[in-house]
């Protein structure tokens, strides 16, 4: 008798957990079937509790998803332009393309209120360090949306993206559903990072998942194997990045709008180093601008100490190294560090 009361209380606990959730009608029917199955198995303690643990975990995931929750878009062109200019030096053509897409979304919202905003699917392609990932981050910032980053480098299992069936022990949703549960909006910016770097043996299957993710006719009913109920991804703003497009399937490329991220010239890198990277590096190192002075004549050595680099990652590392060494000297008693042609080799390696 006590056992049946305990089982009945467990079922009631699950029902109370779900009762306040805003779920699609079809999914609610699926959940009702789960409760019916639990009640059928209530006469067998061992069978019931094995189902109960699995079903409780499933319901936790289901009610954690933002089925009908959206963040409010900003879609302010002036604000977007100011933020893009503040976060990125140059790249005028790339910024203009992004502003055009935001303008289209703003017009859609103003002239077709209540309709879903269909965002373009952008692919930033360029060499390492040219700002592809940070540009995607800026898009989320200027639109007021949450950012989900899904790394594809070395990815070898499509189940990582779309989950595993509940029939398998320790099954869980894929990274897309897990990320949506974490960000709690159904219209985030979803960054698919380095989609050209998936493992060779999984290339075809992962490209197949990408087609479903990026196709506007299919992603409104994206199916995760674990959730086993379609989730609407059509309101998400997808951004992908790659170093080159040679390993990306034609079917995927057909759904993407490619934006080339150009390499930086030495002059552009010097400006980026002075105005963007150095102020942050000084702050991170606990220094003030008065404590570290880099002579104009040695900035070319900071930018290109060991040869050409298309992006700014090496530049960032060099400036951070300068600041660390300067911090150590300040701590040892020096008041001001001046880096010039005479001592640059003491701070970063040179040819």
Number of spatially distinct domains: 3
First-residue to last-residue Cα separation: 83 Å
Name of the CATH first level of the largest domain: Alpha Beta
What's the total count of β strands?
A: 7
User: Low-confidence parts, pLDDT < 50 over ≥5 residues?
Assistant: none
Q: Main sheet: which strands, in order across? A: 2-3-4-1-5
Number of helices: 13
What structural category do the secondary elements indicate? alpha/beta
The SSE order reads HHHHHEHEHHEHEHEHEHHE
- CATH fold-level label of the largest domain: Rossmann fold
Mean pLDDT metric: 90
User: How much beta, percentage-wise?
Assistant: 5-15%
What is the second-level CATH architecture of the largest domain? 3-Layer(aba) Sandwich
CATH superfamily of the largest domain: P-loop containing nucleotide triphosphate hydrolases
The helix content is 40-55%
Largest sheet features: 5 strands, parallel
Q: In words, what does this structure look like?
A:
The chain is of the alpha/beta class. The chain has three domains: 63 residues; 184 residues, Rossmann fold, CATH 3.40.50; 81 residues, Orthogonal Bundle (Helicase, Ruva Protein, domain 3), CATH 1.10.8.60. The protein contains 13 helices and seven strands. Strands 2-3-4-1-5 form a five-stranded parallel β-sheet, with helices on both faces. It has a two-stranded parallel ribbon with strand order 6-7.
